[in-house]
Automatic annotation (TrEMBL):
GO terms for biological process: L-histidine biosynthetic process. NCBIfam families: hisC, PRK03317.1. CDD domains: AAT_like (cd00609). The keyword Amino-acid biosynthesis applies. Its cofactor is pyridoxal 5'-phosphate. Keywords: Amino-acid biosynthesis, Aminotransferase, Histidine biosynthesis, Pyridoxal phosphate, Transferase. This is Unannotated protein. The keyword Metal-binding does not apply. PANTHER family: HISTIDINOL-PHOSPHATE AMINOTRANSFERASE (PTHR42885:SF2), HISTIDINOL-PHOSPHATE AMINOTRANSFERASE-RELATED (PTHR42885). Pathway: Amino-acid biosynthesis.
């Protein structure tokens, strides 16, 4: 894989010593293949939504001489409304922050509150430790067992011992797809609160899951911050919109470390249209969930072992050969999956039915 090569920095480059061993994040972007490797939503933005976006653009374009609304007020209000509707909550704009993808939210959070270090339960989203390193945040690893579950006694003991400023939990987890129960999230909220730390719940795939959202913990545990994205469920990855829901004081802290005018007026306008059409865009989520169940059943029938998923992807094992060899053999058949670095596993994003069929046909050749 391309990302295993260490960078050979020129001697004159004053790169921070703690970053010298890092390589850029990146999944291969190969053209001409069926890409089921980055958990994108395969459905294009519906034509009627595209039309509405186009009708908003002239005003945005004429005003490009002006900076955007620095605090993205209309967008944050629309996001608060969306969260309130979908989780039966009562948040206001002062509980919401928006940025260029949830990755930017995570970075802004680490810049603001990472002073005492961060803890995450691996295997999980590899960008969390990457942003930690880039922001000079000390990173510690907690563990998941062979079924990707977190032992809550061990986790809460670790939180008490390390007293991290930030504890990350991804649910549904990437790359496993497994969800952490609301009861366990509450245990983590309590343990992090006891050490005056934040619990960052990365809910990038929340809309694909039946589990209750951690936003329900915020009123009791103001140290809980929920991070979400429009990249997956809203089929909006190219626009780059992520957001955080939390106590007012957390939003105030994020305002200190965000870059001025970070979210372009075009992004804000397009995201508003997407949110106005949320029921239309989210209708595709149900289709993806039922495809996920179908693909999981088919993989099991072929003899593969599939990790139960609450997201828009499946982690599975049981194919012939190692992950890199199976990955390569699938690329040769025109299917791009993700080798997430877990021995014996590959991850497949749920695509359109026709893409899933191609995948199933190709993987059948590698069945155990
Ligand atoms: C895809 C993903 C994100 C983020 O993406 P953005 O496109 O930056 O919003 C965040 N967290 C997890 C766990 C993801 O899988």
């Amino acid at each position: 894989m391309t990302n295993s090569r260490k960078v050979d920095w020129p001697e004159w480059l004053p790169i921070r010593s703690e970053l010298a061993d890092l390589t850029p994040y990146g999944a291969p972007q190969i053209s001409g293949v069926t890409a089921l490797n980055t958990n994108e939503n395969p459905f294009a933005v519906p034509q009627e939504v595209v039309e509405q976006m186009l009708s908003r653009l002239p005003k945005v374009l004429e005003n490009l001489n002006r900076y955007p609304d620095r605090d993205a007020n209309l967008l944050r209000e629309a996001l608060a409304n969306y969260i309130n509707r979908s989780t039966k909550s009562d948040f206001s704009i002062s509980n919401l922050w928006a940025a260029n993808g949830s990755n930017e939210i995570l970075q802004t959070l680490m810049l603001a509150c990472g002073g005492r270090g961060a803890l995450g339960f691996t295997p999980s989203y590899s960008v969390h430790p990457l942003i930690a390193k880039a922001t000079g945040t000390n990173w510690s690893e907690g563990y998941r067992d062979n079924s990707f579950e977190i032992d809550m006694d061990k986790a809460t003991a670790q939180i008490a011992e390390l007293t991290p400023g930030l504890t990350f939990i991804t649910t549904p987890n990437n790359p496993s797809g497994t969800a952490t129960s609301f009861a366990d999230l509450e245990k983590l909220a309590l343990a992090t609160k006891a050490v005056k730390g934040l619990l960052i719940v990365d809910e990038a795939y929340a809309e694909f899951s039946a589990e209750e959202s951690a936003v329900k913990l915020i009123s009791t545990y103001p140290n809980v911050v929920v991070v979400r994205t429009m990249s997956k469920a809203f089929a909006f990855a190219g626009a780059r919109v992520g957001y955080a829901i939390g106590d007012e004081s957390i939003v105030k802290a994020l305002l200190v470390t965000r870059l001025p005018y970070h979210l372009s007026s075009a992004t804000q306008a397009l995201a508003l249209v997407a949110l106005e059409n949320s029921s239309l865009l989210l209708a595709e989520v149900a289709a993806l969930v039922s495809e996920r169940e179908r693909v999981a059943r088919e993989l099991s029938k072929l003899g593969f072992e599939v990790v139960p998923s609450s997201a828009n992807f499946l982690l599975f094992r049981g194919f012939m050969g190692g992950s890199p060899e199976a990955w390569k053999s699938l690329v040769d058949s025109g299917i791009l999956l993700r080798d997430v670095g877990l021995e014996g596993y590959l991850r497949v994003t749920i695509g359109l039915p026709i893409e899933n069929e191609k995948f199933l046909a190709a993987i059948a050749a590698l069945k155990p």
